[in-house]
Amino acid sequence: MLVLLKPGTPESVASDVMTRLRMAGLAIHRTEHDGRIRIAAIGDLSAVHWDDVEAWPGVEGTKRLERPFKLASRAFHPHDTVISVGRAVIGGPALTIMAGPCSIEGEEQAFTIAAAVAAAGATVMRGGAYKPRTSPYAFQGLGEEGLKILRRAADAHGLAVVSEVMDSQLVPLLARYADILQVGARNMQNYALLREVGQLQKPVLLKRGLSSTIEEWLLSAEHVMAQGNQHVLLCERGIRTFETYTRNTLDLNAVPVVKELSHLPVIVDPSHGVGIRDKVAPMARAAIAAGADGLIVEVHHDPDHALSDGAQSLYPAQFEELVAQIRTIAGAIGRQL
Ligand code: PEP
Ligand code: MN
User: How far is the C-alpha of 277 from the C-alpha of 298, rounded, in Å?
Assistant: First the structure.
């Protein structure tokens, strides 16, 4: 239930309202919009007489939050959530470009790519150190050593860091090195992991599951937010369909749909979405035109020898050209880069 307080309600009155709702066994989250405090009361709503609540001091009205996701919904939080990480301000008028290799492979590789993506206009460096590979015999990532290299390479070029956390036990380690923790597509419904990253105050890049609906995805965001971490970035990275000519089907429908349903920033990953190098830039351009708040793109200076996802990695020059095109599109749709 959404409980809307009157404009200018004193803090002490707001606090009384929240205490009374808590005493009814409801979980309480608050936000503010246009000078009004908005309270989401979540749980067994039958424990409260809502007509009575409407008469409580300070209460302007109540409204049922119809969707199953509450904190992630625009009905609760009408304005766009904006998340600052390093130099990136994600979800506002400016677009954010995250880029880097699929996996961190070594010092030279990471520093070469960091220099290239920073020069082209990225503000966040991606790079996996713990890799979710379909085959147990494929390269699994460099682990903590990889995180150290990624951090150093990003720092050398003023970039923030996003890296995947595959396991709830590794959350503290990832949080030490990364500015944004990525929850991968395969873990979108790993609720223990979602709870764990929900206890952090660091942003979480939550990738859409391979075969997940938009509602399941937003409910996974809700798991993180219900723990207290409101800094969730939603990442569309393609879903499984019957199509086999591309790695996945990048669901760009999801961009305007999620932007309406939720206040959270939406980032698009065209690299995993299409899986083919020369198709990445067209889909990246389309994603921004569709209203995405940013991109996460795989870039490698020697993709033929990459230890993972070389076939979908852009050469630095291609990435630079893409960023220039994104800048043009940004201007056409009232965004900045
Ligand atoms: C990745 O970003 O390298 C990755 C494994 O992504 P996803 O979870 O979307 O497959
Ligand atoms: Mn990858």
Answer: 9
